[in-house]
From TrEMBL:
Pfam families: Abhydrolase_1. It comes from the Eukaryota. This is Lipase 3. Gene3D superfamilies: alpha/beta hydrolase (3.40.50.1820). Keywords: Glycoprotein, Hydrolase, Lipid degradation, Lipid metabolism, Signal. GO terms for biological process: lipid catabolic process.
Length: 443
């Protein structure tokens, strides 16, 4: 479809019955789960300044900025191994292992159960290392006696390699993937690698946002892998997204009119790091770690992007958050999520030429009925990306025998990024995850 028709298509989308229906549905859900989005308040600003005054180790605060996953773990006193994982289609992924911790050393005869942690769209494995001390999920699991594997999706700075020397980052073909390929190729390769190392056929899995999407793709399309997942914990699962970003939907619902232009403009590669630089200035991670910026423009941008959760934000960590999100990914992955929002369905990528690939005019949808791994879903009532009503639709499509728990996080303002960033995520979310794993409640 011609991009010149885009303005007309956007205008028509504003008045489309489906969009009106989504706003009406949203209004009903908003009575119970009102979406709260606002700028930093004077009270929030005072709390921000107080957090900087209360920093226990100001030197550590600055030392952690700019560190990679392995450098950060070493600085915090944890062992780490980098493992290169090669996928069936030739991508080389960076998998980081925490085999033990100072609080849970290796003991002869004791086998540590493996856990895979998978991040969201335009993020990386640092997602699971943001909170202070050992309150982040990766180190908490290591302290609890688990063998932890932090995954990184193809295309981010930890997973840029390819067995074909011609498949460089400047090659358009390198970026021809969405979350579908991550689910079909990356996850199986990671699971097989973990099994090779640990000799364990099954393992635990924690996925945030797109990390949940990719697991749903794998278990739907390659159901034999259900037996390889002892229990999966889906944090803000981005599966059905029909009510996501409602006020941007006139543009999103016109995706078929501009997806080719969009891909051409970015040459398949979305360099997410550029956006904070445009908004904040050069070296945004460093700048947003300075009290003046963290308590002003940086926290305001965070709230505007993800929604308000002043009570749970650690303002001193906003700069470090920018090393996690947004980072480089494929433009096709973003477009695929736009398609999920447009259709309110969980289907494969629509490239406009579907019959040769799917033998039908529209792309094939993922069959969630194929899932039988035990699943626990966690969601936040103020999540503007994965809205409560969309979580409800996801829950309705997962077999009852697979869905073990559907948990609303007990925090009024809990937003999408709180699952990896909130001050009390260890109490509100991670405690239940660790308890289920330690007790092998579901497998």
């Amino acid at each position: 479809m011609r991009p010149t028709l885009l303005p007309l298509q956007v205008l028509l989308s504003i008045f489309a019955p489906t969009l009106r229906q989504r706003f009406e549905e949203n209004a009903i859900w908003e009575k119970e789960y009102p979406e709260i989005s606002r700028a930093i308040s004077p009270n929030d600003r005072r709390e921000c300044h107080q957090q900087f005054k209360d920093l226990k180790d100001p030197q550590l605060h600055w030392d952690l900025i700019g560190l990679t996953i392995d450098q950060r773990l070493i600085r915090l006193g944890y062992p780490v191994e980098r493992i290169n994982v090669t996928t069936e289609d030739g991508y080389i992924l960076g998998l980081y292992r925490i085999p033990f911790s100072p609080k849970s050393p290796i003991v002869e005869g004791i086998v540590k159960k493996a856990v895979i942690l998978y991040h969201g769209l335009m993020a990386n494995g640092l997602s699971f290392l943001l909170q202070d001390g050992s309150r982040n999920l990766a180190m908490l699991l290591a302290d609890s006696g688990f063998d932890v594997y932090i995954a990184n999706a193809r295309g981010n700075s930890y997973s840029e390699g390819h067995v074909n020397p011609d498949m460089t980052l400047d090659n358009w073909e390198y970026w021809d993937f969405s979350f579908h390929e991550v689910g079909i190729f990356d996850l199986p390769a990671i699971i097989e690698t973990v099994t090779d190392i640990t000799k364990q056929e099954s393992m635990y899995y924690v996925g945030h946002s797109m990390g949940s999407t990719t697991l749903a793709v794998l278990l739907s399309e390659r159901p034999e892998y259900n037996r390889r997942i002892a229990t999966a914990f889906l944090l803000a699962p981005a599966i059905f997204l029909g009510h996501s970003w409602l006020y941007a939907q006139p543009f999103i619902k016109s995706v078929n009119y501009y997806q080719y232009t969009f891909n051409n403009f970015f040459a398949g590669r979305l360099e997410g790091e550029i956006l904070p630089e445009l908004l904040v200035g050069s070296v945004p991670a460093t700048r947003c770690s300075i009290e003046e910026y963290a308590c002003g423009i940086c926290s305001n941008l965070f709230f505007r992007q993800f929604g308000y959760d002043g009570p749970q934000i650690n303002y001193t960590k906003i700069g470090q958050f920018l090393e996690v999100y947004p980072v480089t990914s494929s433009s096709k992955a973003m477009l695929h999520f736009f398609q999920l929002i447009k259709t309110n369905k969980f289907c494969q990528y629509d490239d406009g030429f579907n019959e040769p690939r799917y033998s039908q005019r529209s792309p094939s949808c993922y069959n969630l009925e194929n899932i039988f791994s035990p699943l626990l879903i966690f969601w936040g009532s103020n999540d503007s990306t994965v809205k409560p009503q969309d979580v409800a639709k996801t829950v309705s499509h997962i077999p009852k025998t697979a869905l073990k728990e559907n948990i609303k996080v007990d925090s009024k303002y809990f937003i999408h990024m709180d699952f990896v960033f909130a001050k009390d995520a260890d109490i509100l979310v991670y405690k239940r995850i660790v308890d289920v794993m330690l007790n092998a409640t579901y497998g």
